[in-house]
Amino acid sequence: MTSVLQLPAELWLQVFSFLSWRDKLSVRCTCSHFRHLLDKSRPLWRGFSVTPPTALP
C-alpha cells in the first residue's frame, strides 16, 4: 500500500493552494511532512500577514 505522503510535493502544493490560510495552518499542524512543504513554499502564504496589537490606553 502506498502512503499519501509519497505523492509528489508539487501535487500537495497544488492542493494546498486552494485552502484558506486558516486551513493551511491546520494542515501544517498535522504532520512534519506537511509542515515542511508549507514552510518552504512562500507563494502559498501570499496575502497572509500578522499585525501586532496596538497599545491599549
Automatic annotation (TrEMBL):
<dbReference type="InterPro" id="IPR001810">
    <property type="entry name" value="F-box_dom"/>
</dbReference>
<dbReference type="Pfam" id="PF12937">
    <property type="entry name" value="F-box-like"/>
</dbReference>
<feature type="domain" description="F-box">
    <location>
        <begin position="1"/>
        <end position="48"/>
    </location>
</feature>
<dbReference type="InterPro" id="IPR036047">
    <property type="entry name" value="F-box-like_dom_sf"/>
</dbReference>
<protein>
    <recommendedName>
        <fullName>F-box domain-containing protein</fullName>
    </recommendedName>
</protein>
